[in-house]
Specification:
Layout (H helix, E strand, L loop, with lengths): L16 H30 L4 H37 L3 H36 L4 H16 L1 H16 L4 H23 L9 H25 L15 H33 L3 H17 L1 H19 L3 H28 L1 H8 L4 H14 L3 H16 L3 H25 L6 H24 L11 H20 L1
Helix pairs in contact: 1-6, 1-7, 1-10, 2-3, 2-4, 2-5, 2-8, 2-10, 3-4, 3-5, 4-7, 5-7, 6-7, 8-15, 9-13, 10-11, 10-14, 11-13, 11-14, 12-13, 13-16, 14-16, 15-16
Length: 479
């Protein structure tokens, strides 16, 4: 028998959809912005060591991102299940799901940590990393992999809290750890007093230390039960049936996220064939793009939570209304941002590279080609969030694979290598893929198959089952 849902577990199954979206999306967007501060802080302090040190960190990032993406699917699955059971008003099951996904994340992160640590030198060699940065890149990677249990743990904590509708507390934790990282970076990189200088690896030590602190605080809030989840030791007894369900939901999400991570690497290989100027223009353009899509990702995550809670409550109609309102808001917001980027492309690029006219021209050209389709990115992200929230993670996996391998990369190759466009063809592949995949996503969502997905028993279904059982019993007594 389920107990009453705790006060702090927020259910968004009624009331204003717009208000719910704003309440969830704004803290998530702010948290994502703060997460990027980790990278900016590391780059700033490592940059004081010189260009080779920056290169050592830069070449390591795609590998770390790929590993995190592989394990990130468990976070997506956990968040969806927690949200759906929250919407269904089953707090005891929410506690059980949260504990089981945390257990799975612990095991997965330990395995990936060991694998990444031992394979780091080999993978860097296969990538053709220059000997000048090999030592620093290897040390940075290995320290990062050893601390991956903390990185995964905090991501999972954020996913669980997002599932129950509590998104402010993780922001406070991230904010404190960003400030701590700002202090620890120079301490470990350059050394002070009894603390020896660790160089590039010092940035990884600082990040691992702050992530460890974040996990400790996060787990304390979960174990304390203050925010709607109360974990007990009995919840951590392996439930193999539930774990299989988490894997079925999480595996497609892992493939989706790792496909996006792999896409960065694949496109980089193609871009490098056009020389240093094109590489620099691409790097600046994609860096600006990574900031631009933060609102879209925040709205997508909020949409997934709202849709999941309403699907759990058996209200697919409201879930659909949430999805389309989210898509409309995301389209308009990002399209307005795109117009601004189009109008002020050169000043934006010049902010990053003030003394490189060629890079400024190339980066501005990338933004001019790309910017006016930002709205389609927002639309696609919002509806993908709705697919995830309804439990259709396979759909989002297929969309990610189609986006990269059917449209973006083939178009980039054909337009840049087999037309007169040359390097500019690389830029045109992005907006083309964005518009096409957004239209495919919208049509697929309109088809409505997501409404029939059931990953938990809804309250209405449970009630119907109880009534049916009662009728059968009465008929048995009367016969």
């Amino acid at each position: 028998m389920e107990h009453r849902a705790p006060h702090h577990a927020k259910r968004f199954t009624e009331g204003s959809i717009l208000r719910s979206l704003v309440m969830l999306a704004l803290p998530i967007v702010f948290a994502n912005i703060l997460q990027t501060a980790y990278q900016l802080t590391d780059t700033f302090w490592v940059g004081r060591l010189g260009g080779e040190a920056v290169a050592a960190v830069s070449v390591s990032f795609p590998l770390i991102f790929l590993m995190i993406s592989l394990g990130g699917g468990l976070g997506v699955a956990g968040s969806v299940l927690v949200a759906q059971y929250t919407g269904a008003g089953k707090p005891d099951t929410v506690n059980h799901v949260a504990a089981q996904t945390l257990l799975m994340v612990l095991v997965a992160s330990l395995l990936l940590s060991l694998l990444g640590y031992h394979l780091s030198p080999l993978v860097l060699q296969l990538m053709g990393v220059e000997p000048a940065i090999m030592h620093d890149a290897t040390r940075y990677l290995q320290v990062s992999f050893l601390g991956m249990v903390f990185t995964f743990g905090f991501f999972m904590y954020q996913s669980i809290m997002r599932g129950i509708g509590e998104v402010r507390v993780p922001v406070y934790i991230v904010l404190s750890t960003v400030f701590l990282n700002l202090l620890l970076d120079p301490l470990f990189i350059f050394g002070w007093g009894p603390i020896p200088a660790a160089g590039v690896a010092g940035a990884a030590y600082a990040t691992v230390g702050t992530q460890a602190m974040a996990v400790i605080i996060g787990m304390a809030t979960l174990l304390g039960g203050r925010y709607g989840i109360r974990l007990q030791l009995r919840n951590f007894t392996p439930d193999w049936a539930l774990m299989r369900r988490v894997v079925r939901l999480g595996l497609p999400a892992s493939i989706e996220q790792s496909t996006r991570a792999l896409g960065l690497t694949v496109m980089t290989f193609l871009v490098t064939s056009f020389g240093t100027l094109t590489i620099a223009s691409y790097g600046i353009g994609t860096r600006i793009l990574s900031f631009i899509i933060i609102p879209a990702i925040g709205i997508s995550m909020a949409t997934a939570t709202l849709v999941a809670q309403n699907m759990g409550a058996g209200n697919a109609k409201r879930a659909g209304a949430i999805a389309w309102m989210s898509a409309g808001i995301s389209f308009v917001v990002l399209e307005l941002v795109g117009v601004l980027c189009f109008l002020f492309a050169e000043p934006l690029v010049r902010f990053f590279v003030p003394n490189a006219p060629g890079v400024i021209a190339g980066g501005a050209q990338f933004l001019h080609v790309m910017a006016l389709t930002f709205g389609f990115i927002g639309l696609q992200q919002a509806l993908s969030g709705a697919f995830r929230g309804s439990g259709n993670t396979l759909n989002t996996m297929i969309l990610a694979l189609v986006s990269l391998w059917v449209f973006q990369f083939p178009l980039a190759y054909l337009l840049s290598k087999h037309t007169h466009l040359g390097a500019v063809g690389l830029w045109w592949a992005f907006p083309s893929a964005n518009v096409i995949v957004a239209c495919i996503t919208a049509l697929w969502f309109l088809q409505g198959g997501w409404r029939r997905t059931r990953i938990i028993e809804t309250p209405q279904e449970k009630l119907t089952g109880e009534v049916t059982e009662e009728v059968i019993v009465q008929e048995g007594i009367n016969s």
